Each structure stands twice: as structure tokens, then as C-alpha cells.
From TrEMBL:
UniProt keyword annotations, A-Z: DNA-binding
GO molecular-function terms, A-Z: DNA binding; DNA-binding transcription factor activity
Classification via SMART domains: EZ_HEAT (SM00567), HTH_MERR (SM00422)
Lineage of producing organism: Bacteria, Bacillati, Actinomycetota, Actinomycetes, Mycobacteriales
Taxonomic source organism: Gordonia amicalis
Domain HTH merR-type per the UniProt entry, residue ranges: 1-69
Source superkingdom: Bacteria
InterPro entries, per database record: ARM-like, ARM-type_fold, DNA-bd_dom_put_sf, MerR-type_HTH_dom, MerR_fam, PBS_lyase_HEAT
Keyword set includes Transferase: no
The protein's name: HEAT repeat domain-containing protein
Length: 326
């Protein structure tokens, strides 16, 4: 088959067929009596193999190796191609997100569009000071809740994160964006989302926080329990008591428990959980927690602990109890 016929049937241009010949990738094995290239059936089959491999994104060099090198192993090449493809897809996804964020800002002229683009770049700057300044301007510039949430959940600088939380609190749709990230597989993302939700005094935010009380990450549970405790939500009480028992930010947990209105109930739950613990350090934390709670129930519990078998626990309970005496 002559080159023109091969080009017509295969869809590969004569120019590319000659290029393949020059590279040694697909060489016609025959010549006509007039000296023209003539492709055999085996040559056509090889050409189809070349085009198939090229359709996967292989370079001509890799195609030649794959077809001619008996020791060629495709695993590493395929792994590299998969990674390159995933990287391109991720870059395209980031670009699409950026375009949607610009669209959501509802900029009505090119000057406003460029301002939004500049802010979107600045909130992801490598310099924390630049990110913080952009966060403080973000609300006025109309950055979307999605754009601000993305920036916040990627932010490691506490001052910039605070500025982004402030901007988010003024932005419509912030709660929905944050709530969607509470189930993220990355605990760091969940921690940042929960911290932002904890600053939103809203019934829906409270409901989302309650759902996160069983999060597998201890820092998330601590943050949620303290936030709900400050709102007087009963569901947080057991978690706060466990924090006291474990010595995990126990002072903060005890202070939060002291804010609940029903002192007698809180004291009863603390004593039931910690009072009979065989570890004296746990009973000592109970004494310290009771010190934060006013009322007769806490005073009586301290009196009882004044007879504890551990001298440190007993002495501490008596000392705190004496300070509460009228």
C-alpha cells in the first residue's frame, strides 16, 4: 500500500508518516519498482499500534521504546502518566474553582474583576502579611463564601485565620460552606472548619457542632465540646467530663462545666464518673473541677473528698473547701 493510500485509510497525514519513517518508528518495508514507499500489512499494524499508544499521551520516544525494547516495563511509565494526568486534572479543577469564585463576586467591569483576581491571589500568597491584608479586604470586595472558606481551611497562620473567620462571618453562605467541610477526611481541615463554626452563634451551627461530638480526632472533640458547653448544650457535658477525667485540657473543660446553670446535676455527674476512680490523679482533677463550681453540692463533695485515701487529694480538697467556708 502506497503512502497516500495509508494516509487516507489511517487518518495519519503523509507528513507525519514521513516523520515516523525518519525516526525509524514506522518504516515501510517495501518499495515499488519506481522507488516509492510501500507499506506491508505488518507495517500498517505497527502504525495502528503507534497511534493507539499516542492516544494515551505517550511521547514518540516512549512509543518507540514500548514497541522495540523487549525489556520495556510499562508499569513505571503508566504510573507516571497517571500522575501527570491527575496533576493536570487538579490544575484544571483549581482553575475552574477560581473562575467560579470570580463569577460569584459579581464584578461588573474589568477593574472590579482584576481587583477580585488580585485578592484571590493574595489570600493564597506565600506571605502571611499579604494573606492577612487580603482577608481584611475580602468582605468589601465581595469574595464568595466558597473562596473565603478555601482560603481559611488552607491557612496555618493564626492571625490570618482570624481575619478570614471575621470575613466569613459577614458573608452569605458561610455556614453551608463550613458545614460541608466538617466531614473532610483530613483532620486539620475539620479542626479549622469546626473552629470557624464555633464562632458562629446560630442554631444551625450548633446542630452541626453537635454532630461532630463523636469525631475521631480528639482536638475536634475538644473544640466542639467547649463551644457547645459555652452555649449550655447538654450533649457536650459527657465529653467535657471525659476531658477532665483524661487530663485533656481539663482546666478548660472544668471551667466550661462551671458555666452550666444546673450546678447540682453537673456535680453529681462529675462525682459519679471521677469520684470512685482508683487513680488518685483523676480524683485530684475532680477536686480541681469542683473548685470551679459554686453551690452547696460542690462544697459537700469537697468535704467528702477531704477524707480521701490519698493524702494529696484529701489535703487539696480540705484547702479548697476552707476557702469556700463563709
Amino acid at each position: 500500500m502506497l503512502i497516500g493510500e495509508v494516509a487516507r485509510r489511517s487518518g495519519v497525514s503523509t507528513r507525519m508518516l514521513r516523520h515516523y519513517d525518519t525516526l525509524g518508528l514506522v518504516r515501510p518495508t517495501g518499495r515499488t519498482t519506481g522507488g516509492y514507499r510501500e507499506y506491508s500489512d505488518a507495517d500498517i499494524e505497527r502504525l495502528l499500534h503507534v497511534e493507539s499508544l499516542r492516544s494515551l499521551g505517550l511521547s514518540l520516544r516512549d512509543v518507540g521504546r514500548a514497541l522495540d525494547d523487549p525489556g520495556f516495563a510499562p508499569d513505571a511509565l503508566l504510573e507516571r502518566m497517571i500522575q501527570d494526568t491527575e496533576d493536570r486534572m487538579a490544575a484544571d479543577a483549581r482553575l475552574l474553582d477560581r473562575l467560579r469564585q470570580i463569577e460569584a463576586a459579581d464584578a461588573d467591569d474589568w477593574s472590579a474583576v482584576l481587583d477580585v483576581v488580585g485578592l484571590l491571589r493574595a489570600v493564597h500568597s506565600e506571605y502571611a502579611a499579604h494573606r492577612q491584608r487580603a482577608a481584611l479586604r475580602a468582605g468589601d470586595a465581595g469574595l464568595s463564601a466558597e473562596a473565603l472558606t478555601d482560603a481559611l481551611l488552607a491557612e496555618s497562620d493564626p492571625n490570618t485565620a482570624g481575619a478570614l473567620r471575621w470575613a466569613l462571618a459577614q458573608t452569605s453562605g458561610a455556614l453551608d460552606q463550613l458545614a460541608a467541610r466538617v466531614a473532610d477526611h483530613d483532620p486539620t481541615i475539620r479542626r479549622r472548619a469546626i473552629t470557624a463554626l464555633a464562632s458562629i452563634e446560630d442554631a444551625r451551627a450548633t446542630a452541626v457542632l453537635e454532630g461532630a461530638l463523636t469525631d475521631p480526632d480528639p482536638e475536634v472533640r475538644r473544640t466542639v465540646a467547649r463551644a457547645l458547653g459555652r452555649r449550655g448544650v447538654d450533649a457536650a457535658v459527657d465529653v467535657l467530663i471525659e476531658l477532665v477525667a483524661a487530663g485533656d485540657r481539663d482546666v478548660e473543660a472544668a471551667e466550661t462545666l462551671a458555666t452550666y446553670a444546673d450546678d447540682d446535676r453537673i456535680v453529681g455527674l462529675l462525682v459519679d464518673r471521677l469520684g470512685g476512680d482508683p487513680d488518685p490523679s483523676v480524683r485530684l482533677r475532680l477536686v480541681q473541677a469542683l473548685a470551679e463550681i459554686a453551690g452547696d453540692a460542690a462544697s459537700k463533695a469537697l468535704t467528702d473528698l477531704g477524707d480521701d485515701a490519698d493524702e494529696t487529694v484529701a489535703r487539696t480538697a480540705r484547702a479548697i473547701g476552707s476557702l469556700r467556708s463563709p
